[in-house]
Amino acid sequence: MDERKKLTLQEILKTPDKEERIRKILAYCLGEEKVEAWLNAPHPDLNDRTPQSVMDEHGEAGVDAVLGMLLDAIGGAPS
User: How far apart are CA 67 and CA 29, in angstroms?
Assistant: First the structure.
């Protein structure tokens, strides 16, 4: 059994490193085992590119785009 403290979403959103914050949001919402699958699956909001490729190819702007998409989803904004 994992003895680590489970973080709340509010705590996760305070994570300073944006890429780490993305991974923690995904783990919180989908489960740790689905993080890599989500990052490597084409997404319609990214012109059918994968979130990981957008982050890799566009640096900080790509990370911001993926993080913004996740924050919108958490907040209930339509895509």
Answer: 14
- Total residues belonging to the chain: 79
69 close to 45: Cβ distance less than 8 angstroms? yes
Residues sharing a CB contact under 8 Å with residue 49, sequence separation 6 or more, in sequence order: 42, 43
* Six-digit token string for 56: 């890799």
pLDDT in tens, 24-59: 999 999 999 999 999 999 999 999 999 999 999 999
| pTM for the full predicted model | 0.87
Q: What is the CA radius of gyration of the chain?
A: 13
Contact between 22 and 5 under an 8 Å Cβ cutoff? The reply is: no
Task: Round to whole Å and give the CA distance between 70 and 79.
Answer: 10
